[in-house]
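Appendix B, example 12.
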Amino acid sequence: MRVTRIMMGMPITIEVVGATDQTLHDRAFAYLEAVDRRFSTYRSDSEISAINRGEIARDDYSPDMREVFALAEQTYAESDGYFDIRRPDGTLDPSGIVKGWAIRNTANLLSEAGARNFFVDAGGDVQSAGRNPDGEEWRAGIQDPFHPMQFVKLVYPRGRGIATSGTYVRGHHIYDPHHPDMLIDDVVSLTVIGQDVLEADRFATAAFAMGSDGINFIETLPGLEGYQIDRAGIATMTSGFKALTQP
């Protein structure tokens, strides 16, 4: 059974092979709604908005907020500061890591409930497990940033996670923390495949902030593969990426 809902400002699709009703889907979407209520910077009643207004002390952060902030600090260190949830205006915006974290947790929820074959797609970021309803490998498309209704590549993640950072949907929302006044315009899309969608998401954001050097950074990280498209439409991929395009 496949169910799609608009949530967290994007379409989210959850497909669970063999499900006969929406009970498990409802639980998964309820979790994602709770994540949005806590972490959305667009909601004045969210915890992150209250933190940015100075209304919640660090000692009073929720366990989820503490976990996400710890992951952000880890990624900051691992990326030489290119991943930074602190905006130039001093506010905190963990959205560059929350989506992957939430998708991974949703996949864990499905797995713990007994699902063995499923697919979670949140705005193009994907976590899958097992096989599709036809008994074949799940596959996912990498969107063409210049023609959003088309795909430039099909990949077979085989249980890995997929995340894409880019400017073609939300504009220039990612910045280089080392040069916050400079637009990143040499790269328009960077897709990363990692051991799970959280790993893919946090490093896709960090690598995109590096501009054209991001794909080289992904190449140095064990367990990650990447596919980068520059403003001229030229694609560069890591050495192991091609293997993931084969069924």
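The first strand starts at residue 2 and ends at 7. The CA atoms of residues 88 and 202 lie 19 Å apart.
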